[in-house]
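Re: beginner question about structure tokens

> Can someone show what the tokenized structure looks like for a real chain? I only ever see the sequence side.

Sure, here's an example I had lying around. Input first:
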Amino acid sequence: MADVNRGNRPLSPHLQVYRPQLTSITSILTRITGNALLAGALLVVWWFLAAATGSAYFDLVDGILTSWIGNVIMTLSLWALWYHFAAGLRHLYWDTGRGLDIPTAEKLGKLVIAFSLIMTLITVIIL
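And the corresponding structure tokens:
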């Protein structure tokens, strides 16, 4: 039997009707932080290469990375590192077949976010 209402409804949920869930947001953040870690690592490699090149070039790069924007980028990279680490632990836990029900998955998502923020603050205070 043909579906006569097919033209009157969307084929999939669209942004106006889809309410993002914590589990989907944390999954997307895991992918974003994984890519952001590459950018942070490239900045650190640039800093090391500048140190190996000479003092004038190192002073330039060091000035950029220790400026306010460099500090913001490095702090966000630090948060991305802690977030990605915690999300990886969560996935290892899920790989055992536990914690896959919705209430536990949401609690783990909140725990990952809280852990990453707390560890970022602790690391910034210590360093």
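Each token stands for a local structural state, so reading them left to right follows the chain. The chain has a mean pLDDT of 90.
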